[in-house]
Amino acid sequence: MKETELRQLLNDLTLDEKIGQLVQLPGYFQNAGAVTGPAADMGLTEEDLRLAGSYLSIIGAEKIRKLQTEFMARHPHHIPLLFMADIINGYRTVFPIPLAQGCTFDPELVKQGAAIAAREAAAAGIHVTFSPMADLVWDARWGRVMESTGEDPYLNAQMAAAMVRGYQGDSLEEKGRIAACLKHFAGYGAAEGGRDYNTAELSVRTLREDHLPAYQAAVDAGCEVVMASFNTLDRIPSAANEWLLKEVLRKEMGFKGMVISDWNALEELLAHGIAADQKEAAFIALRAGVDMDMTSPIYIRNLKKLVEEGKVPEQWINESAWRVLRLKNRLGLFERPFRDADEGEEKAVLLSDGHRQAARECAEKSFVLLKNEDQMLPIRGDEAAFIGPYVDHPYLNGAWSIFADDQDTVTVRAALARHPRTRNVPTAPGCPISDPDQPVLGFQQPVAPDSCDPEEALKEAVDLAKKADKVVLCLGEHRECTGEAASRGDITLPKCQLRLLDEIARANKNIAVVLFGGRPLDIRPLKEKAKAILAAWLPGSEGGNAVVRTLLGESDPSGRLSMCFPWCVGQLPVHYNHLNTGRPFRGDYHAARFGSKYQDIPNEPLYPFGFGLSYTGFAYSSVKLSADSMTKKQRITASVTVTNTGSREGTETVQLYLHDLAASVARPVRQLKGFRKVKLEPGESREVAFVISEDMLRLYDLSMRFVSEPGEFEVFIGPDSATDNRARFTLLDEAR
Ligand code: BGC
What we know:
Rossmann fold, eight-stranded parallel beta sheet, binds beta-D-glucopyranose
């Protein structure tokens, strides 16, 4: 529709019809116009349902075509509905969780995964996905770390932009594309104490420097929708934060699309204690810039009254309704209300061989080898016994894979049975996946404990371990231990799994652990007792195949940690890009009594950001700079030569970090500014160069200007964030 026609349509709408566009109803209200159950509880009328702008979580080509047809027939202006859903790491073909995707350090691969998710979801009738989640995460207690791409602003920015491009393609008109909704704006990942929905206390400088870049990258990549976060920021819930949504998001960041609240967040303004009643909540949220109300009765029940009483100018409603209509138009819904919803296409693309293969590749590239002593890995196959609750556990998708069928997931056991080298390996569960006294709370209800008898299972496993040359132990948290509303104060493995580890270690010293789960855990006992540890996260539909291929050496683990593994929970929040403090602690724990440290644990995490081994080894030359000083207009090339020192081909992720030694505000000890993946044959060397330009040296100065300041900088290039391979250069003061 031409913009003039769309304007005309908006002009033709009554106030009720415009307010209807601002409302998103949950999918379970879907009886196409009849007010029953939850819709009745919310006080909705048939008219409200008839005028709604959008539905969430309805999926399936046939269902959506039918609903769209019925709704448009009943709507006075035949305005199509917008169908949105959480397509987070795939629709039916499930990719690894986003935290694992971050570990690929491969934005192109992540983009391809998002494109596949879009293709499947588009065929199933979806128009917009609530992804990417670009929230920065420094606290592994927070259950939603699994949905983030990690602890680093630069990496998150690359990944958020890649996902937007994957979903949306070059144009929303292309077949198989869906619009992206960036979330949760802003600072949701900074929940105090790692407790979901909790307050975020961030300085404006930290917000701008660490949290905003990934959101900005998604906006720059053209994402169509932004979701306001649940949390307060500076004591204001985002759905009520006019400064955040208008000044920062729209004016500074240049976002032009539609803003939606999070689930029921407008009603929650009452619980936050910033609205006395529903009417005030409606006023505050609309004024702040929330265009669409996700699933609460606030807009639908209050906006009309507010306009009639002269408290809300109708112009505010017009502006928000315009943004909703504009999105529908950008999606071409007025001409193609079903877009790509097509049952034949669903059959052709969902879980197609190509999609499965892409999911497997992504999983393999997300695996992080944390330890590998005595060349425990790779295994031949026939010398190993596979033990542990994750050997045959089908829940390899993250908690957000709500539309996937677990029966489509290849478990480790199924993959072993298919592979000629492992067809006959013995397997045993060893123990239940979680402790009976620590029930796992799923999103909706407690998860039924698995049925294996702990004592019998343990005995069977130990017997197997005694007979085998090597034991592959498949351990980890239940998938429902991470995700929304799944924060945990204890991030150790379940007691039954630790007991299994102890008993197996007594029987056989050659243990390789494959670790599953949605967060970095406290894995000190694993580090002590296992010779190898492979972090496999929640690898998705092809998880089992990816794990088996990797263990057999058919794929080299090339993932690098997108979030560090903390030493223990007491260290949280922890991140490599921290400030130095006035008393940086180095070296001897007892000598530096008044250094910034703990008495009982180190400052450093167990495994740092960016860390990961390969089946081969890599050596780095020292850092070479093309000059030792530069003006703001000049550039310096920093390079290293990387050599594959092992006997197999492998892929290294070469990482560049910068550090401003003295500035007007305290600077992080180092910050990731670039990375490059290089595939090297045994003995092969390659020079890897990064160009350093002035924009990479900027900071928010005393007056909150984003500028670089002359002085000395350190350049680190190495395999992870703890590298000591460094050089120095000076940014010259041109005024002098
Ligand atoms: C979550 C969002 C999600 C929305 C819709 C909320 O509870 O915070 O991330 O997109 O529900 O399902």
